[in-house]
Amino acid sequence: DVQLVESGGGLVQPGGSLRLSCASSEQPYSSIFVGWFRQVPGKEREGVAVLYQRNIGSDRTYYADSVKGRFTISQDNAKNTWFLQMNSLKPEDTAMYYCAAARYWVQYPLKADEYEYWGQGTQVTVTS
Predict the structure, then answer these.
(1) Which residues lie across from 123 on neighbouring strands?
(2) What percent of the chain lies above the pLDDT cut of 90?
(3) Residue 94 above 80 pLDDT?
(4) Digit-coded pLDDT (tens) for 2-29
(5) Mean pLDDT for the chain overall
(6) Of residues 1, 15, 24, the one with CA closest to residue 83
(7) Biggest alpha carbon distance in the chain?
(8) 42 Cβ neighbours under 8 A, 6+ residues apart
(9) Predicted confidence band at 77 (pLDDT cuts at 50, 70, 90)?
(10) Nearest to 67 by CA among 35, 89, 96, 43
(11) Contact (CB, 8 A) for 118 and 3
């Protein structure tokens, strides 16, 4: 089974930054959509940032409106790892963050139910 392992969550003050990492055990690595989702109790899991690797060096990214300009998704193919750099964090960014991956075409990249693989989640708490 493919395993995704997140790291990098924690407690941060408003305006601060965190960097999340997700490492995939998939061999050979063939995921073409990788992303980050978040969830708070009582709400649906929402897409935060997704990267679609069309070709080597030609990626397309998708962001939720609420994080555009503050969050950046990136990938290190050599290490089967992707990242979420989160800057200018706000209290409303507080959530459990999950990484996800898919080997096949995803019609709606920010929609959670289209992904095959999921990490266990890492908590991000933004508070003063």
Answers:
(1) 96
(2) 84
(3) yes
(4) 999 999 999 999 999 999 999 999 888 8
(5) 94
(6) 24
(7) 43
(8) none
(9) confident
(10) 89
(11) no
pLDDT at position 86 is 98
* Dihedrals phi, psi of 115, to nearest 5 degrees: -105, 145
Across residues 69-76, what is the average pLDDT? 95
- Angle at CA of residue 86, ends 83 and 87, nearest 5°: 145
8 Å CB contact between 67 and 17: no
| SS3 call for 87 | coil
User: Residue 4 burial (CB < 10 Å; 0-12/13-18/19+)?
Assistant: buried
Q: CA torsion angle for 6, 12, 15, 17 (degrees, to 10)?
A: -30
**Parallel, antiparallel, or unpaired for β 117-118 and 95-102?**
antiparallel
Please tell me what DSSP assigns to residue 119. B
The structure tokens 């060096």 sit at: 57
Q: Which of 16, 11, 35 is nearest to 90 (CA)?
A: 16
